[in-house]
Specification:
The protein is of the alpha/beta class and 289 residues long. It starts with 6 loop residues before the first helix and ends in a 7-residue tail after the last helix. The protein has a six-stranded mixed sheet, sandwiched between helices. The longest helix is centred in the C-terminal third of the chain and has 18 residues.
Length: 289
């Protein structure tokens, strides 16, 4: 809906929204506002649109409901991710990977990464594992969990009566933090919208967060592993449309990171309890010894 706007304000908001889109951020939260903000956003979506002054008569004709509908539309457009409406998860993942590109959005791109480690597995998986970030082996091979921790994860998956190929595996950050340090908050926040989009594309029944970094980033809460484990959370990837007709979120469980279990094997029994809870949810029978 055309409005008279301060051109400088309009173009700076448009530039800001495009900047966020380029960062992979498509979701904007909307407060109840006068229609002006909506018009600014419309200009961002259609930068060539010419703003026209509102005539006093038409202003009085405009019902609040009409305004709300226009705002809704505008923010729908802005929130649309490139994979939106693509029902084939493999195609949706491909689009997300293309959108990620040769990412330089956070400092990790210039801290020695060899390649981006996007994710691996069944695009239609019922079960998805999320780790922290690639290590040296993953950076070398371009696939998550292929080193020692990956071997243990494979054994955990096998013990659940399924194969690595049946699940999907990804990380919070897609580039190796130097020296395998914990990814910084800024790095996680920059990268996690892509993880959220991967989860929304795959639409699993259960996500298992491996370790505190994955748990805290997915659940947006800070608590100890003891507090986080042992229960399911209702999980919806941040930024997912609430009106997605196919999928309304999934369950999320937290367990120990395999690298931690390699350091402290006494905790394997606890991790197995977490996985058994997941198996019950998915109707899986453990592999026979
Ligand atoms: N640790 C992780 O968190 N992710 C990997 O991909 C490998 C090790």
């Amino acid at each position: 809906m055309p409005r008279t706007l301060d051109p400088e304000l309009r173009s700076s908001l448009a530039a800001r929204i495009r900047y966020y889109n380029e960062m992979g951020i498509y979701d904007f939260y909307r407060r109840e506002t006068p229609g002006e903000v909506a018009a600014l956003a419309a200009d961002a979506a259609e930068p060539d649109a010419v703003a026209e002054p509102i005539q006093p008569e038409s202003r009085t004709e405009m019902s609040a409901r009409k305004d709300a509908a226009v705002e809704e539309n505008i923010f729908e457009v802005l929130a649309t991710k490139p994979e939106q409406g693509v029902s084939d998860p493999a195609k949706a993942l491909k689009i997300i990977r293309e959108d990620l590109g040769d990412c330089t959005r956070c400092p990790l791109h210039k801290q020695g990464r060899k390649q981006i480690v996007f994710g691996v597995g069944n695009p239609s998986a019922e079960l998805m594992f999320v780790g922290e970030g690639p290590g040296a082996d993953e950076d070398q091979q371009g696939e998550p969990f292929v080193g020692r921790a990956g071997q243990l994860l494979n054994n955990m998956i096998k013990a659940m009566g399924i194969t690595r190929e049946q699940v999907y595996i990804a990380n919070v950050v897609k580039c190796r933090p130097p020296g395998n340090r914990t990814p910084e908050r800024e790095e996680c926040e920059t990268c996690s919208p892509f993880l959220m989009r991967q989860i929304a594309a795959i639409k699993p029944k259960v996500v298992v967060a491996l370790g505190a970094v994955a748990a805290k980033n997915l659940l947006a809460m800070s608590a100890s592993m003891a507090q986080l484990r042992g229960r399911f959370y209702d999980f919806k990837p941040t930024g997912m449309r609430s009106n997605d007709p196919d999928w309304d979120g999934c369950k999320l469980a937290v367990t120990y990171h395999p690298a931690f279990l390699l350091r402290d094997p006494r905790q394997k029994g606890e991790a197995w309890k977490d996985l058994q809870m997941v198996m019950r949810e998915l109707g899986l029978k453990p592999q026979k010894a």
